[in-house]
Amino acid sequence: MRIYPPPLKESQVLKQCLDYLAMRNIFFQNTGAFKNNQGNFYRFGTPGAPDIVVVVAGQYIGLEIKAKGRKQSEDQKAFEQALKKAGGEYLVIYDIEDLILRLNQFYD
After folding, report:
1. CA dihedral for 42, 39, 93, 27, sign (positive or negative)
2. Any residues with CB less than 8 A from the CB of 21 and at least 6 apart, and which?
3. pTM for this entry
4. What is the rounded CA–CA span in Å between residue 47 and residue 61?
5. 27: which strand partners?
6. Residue 85 confidence class, pLDDT cut points 50, 70, 90
7. For residues 54 and 3, what is the distance between their CA atoms, to the nearest angstrom?
């Protein structure tokens, strides 16, 4: 019997993605959110904005990080449509392998 590790939390996938982008020197910005000392979580910026924004080969790409089995909110779907209409790209990323594979499509 093979034992599999438990699925990663979104925060763990996000950290892996941020570490990878930094290691590869890919331009990125993690969108605004923080947790204060009392454990309260605050998000600022446009509702539905992706977790990370990158620029790869001149292409603006929003990266929405999701744990396996999680879905986009309605605000995230609306942001995705607006970004694509403006000429940007939007990717929903479920793990680090997904990020690597999907970003490679933007390189020549």
Report:
1. positive
2. 28, 52, 54
3. 0.86
4. 17
5. 55
6. very high
7. 35
